[in-house]
C-alpha cells in the first residue's frame, strides 16, 4: 500500500475545567467559532467542544473536554505542551489589542524568524499566536512536543506522516527541532523541544490530551496505520467520530497521536451555516439524549 503523506495537523484536543470560561476565551479573545457541541464518545457524561473557522475545516480545529472541578494538570515531557495559532504578520497587533482588552497578558517573542505572542488560556494551557506567511491565517500553526530525545519521534513523523526537517534552534527552553509537511497547509509544523530530565507531564485542565494529523481518506489512513505498526507501535482500530474516522497510537515518549480523515466533515448533522448551535450526538446515543443533556453544564453563547 502506497503511503500518502499527511497534510499536517487535523486538530488538537486539550482538557479544560470550566466550560463557560473555555467558551468565552476561545470565541472571544482567540476569535474562533464554536463549531460543534457534542460529548466524549467514550464517556458521554463529558462535554466535547470544538472550535475552528466558520466552515470547521481540518487544520483549523481546537477541541476541549471540560472537566468541571478537576485539578489542574502539569505540562511536562511526554506531552504536546503548547498549541500555536496562525495569523497574518500584520494581524498580530490586532490580536495583541484583543488580548489586552480581555485582560490577558501576552509575551512577545520570535521563533524561526516569525513573531509570536505567548499566553495561556483560562486553565493555563500554553497558547501561542504566530504571525506567518507560510500558511493561511485563521488556523493551526504548530504544536510543540516536550520530549526526552527527539530522534524517535522525528523518525515517526518522517516515515509515517511525511514530515521533513525544517530547522533547528537553541533557546532558553532547550534545543528545538522543527519538522514540516511540504506545501502551505495550516498546521504544517511540529516542533520537538528537547527537555531531557524534565518532569513527566500530568494530565488535567491546562494540558493537551492528544494531537491529530490529517489523512485525506480511509486509504491514506490505512497506509499510515500500517507504517506506524511497522515501527512496532500499537495502533487502535478505526473509530467512527461522526465527523471523521480516527485511529490512535502512542508516539515514542508517550504523546498520544491520532490520525483523522478529512471527511465526512462537520456539516453531516447540522446545517453548514448553523454549526455549533445545539447538542449533537451520534446515532448510538440519541436514545439517551434527554439524560445526557440534563447532565451537561449549560453554556451561554455570546458571553
Which parts are unreliable, with pLDDT below 50 for 5 consecutive residues or more? none
CATH fold name: 2,3-Dihydroxybiphenyl 1,2-Dioxygenase, domain 1
User: What form results from the Cα inertia axes?
Assistant: globular
**Helix proportion range:** 10-25%
CATH architecture: Roll
Instruction: Please give the CATH class.
Output: Alpha Beta
Order of helices and strands: EHEEEEHEEEEHEEEEHEEEH
Characterize the structure shown.
The structure is a single chain. With 303 residues, the chain is α+β, with helices and mostly antiparallel strands. It has one domain (9-295): 2,3-Dihydroxybiphenyl 1,2-Dioxygenase, domain 1 (Roll), CATH 3.10.180.10. Helices cover 17% and strands 38% of the residues. The protein contains five helices and 16 strands. The chain has helices at residues 19-27, 92-101, 150-161, 218-230, 289-295, and strands at 9-16, 33-40, 43-52, 61-66, 79-87, 107-111, 114-120, 126-131, 139-147, 164-171, 174-180, 189-194, 208-215, 239-240, 244-250, 256-264. The strands form two sheets. It has an eight-stranded mixed sheet with strand order 2-3-4-1-13-16-15-14. The chain has an eight-stranded mixed sheet with strand order 6-7-8-5-9-12-11-10, covered by helices on one side. β7 and β8 (126-131) form a beta hairpin. It starts with 8 loop residues before the first strand and ends in an 8-residue tail after the last helix.
Amino acid at each position: 500500500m502506497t503511503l500518502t503523506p499527511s497534510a499536517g495537523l487535523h486538530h488538537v484536543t486539550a482538557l479544560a475545567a470550566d466550560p463557560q470560561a473555555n467558551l468565552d476565551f476561545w470565541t472571544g479573545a482567540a476569535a474562533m467559532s464554536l463549531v460543534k457541541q457534542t460529548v466524549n464518545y467514550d464517556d458521554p457524561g463529558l462535554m466535547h467542544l470544538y472550535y475552528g473557522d466558520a466552515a470547521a475545516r481540518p487544520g483549523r480545529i481546537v477541541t476541549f473536554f471540560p472537566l468541571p472541578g478537576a485539578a489542574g494538570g502539569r505540562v511536562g515531557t511526554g506531552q504536546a505542551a503548547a498549541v500555536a495559532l496562525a495569523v497574518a504578520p500584520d494581524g498580530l497587533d490586532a490580536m495583541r489589542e484583543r488580548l489586552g482588552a480581555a485582560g490577558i497578558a501576552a509575551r512577545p517573542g520570535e521563533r524561526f524568524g516569525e513573531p509570536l505572542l505567548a499566553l495561556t488560556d483560562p486553565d493555563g494551557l500554553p497558547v501561542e499566536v504566530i504571525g506567518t506567511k507560510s500558511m493561511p491565517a485563521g488556523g493551526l500553526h504548530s504544536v510543540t512536543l516536550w520530549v526526552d530525545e527527539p530522534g524517535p519521534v522525528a523518525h515517526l513523523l518522517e516515515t509515517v506522516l511525511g514530515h521533513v526537517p525544517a530547522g533547528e534552534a537553541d533557546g532558553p527552553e532547550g534545543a528545538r527541532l522543527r519538522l514540516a509537511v511540504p506545501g502551505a497547509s495550516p498546521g504544517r509544523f511540529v516542533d520537538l523541544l528537547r527537555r531531557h530530565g524534565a518532569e513527566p507531564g500530568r494530565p488535567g485542565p491546562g494540558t493537551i490530551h492528544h494531537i491529530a494529523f490529517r489523512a485525506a481518506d480511509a486509504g491514506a489512513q490505512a497506509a499510515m496505520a500500517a507504517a506506524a505498526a511497522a515501527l512496532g507501535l500499537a495502533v487502535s482500530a478505526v473509530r467512527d467520530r461522526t465527523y471523521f474516522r480516527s485511529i490512535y497510537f502512542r508516539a515514542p515518549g508517550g504523546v498520544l497521536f491520532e490520525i483523522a480523515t478529512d471527511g465526512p466533515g462537520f456539516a453531516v448533522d447540522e446545517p453548514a451555516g448553523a454549526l455549533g448551535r445545539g447538542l449533537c450526538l451520534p446515532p448510538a446515543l440519541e436514545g439517551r439524549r434527554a439524560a445526557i443533556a440534563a447532565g451537561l453544564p449549560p453554556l451561554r453563547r455570546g458571553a
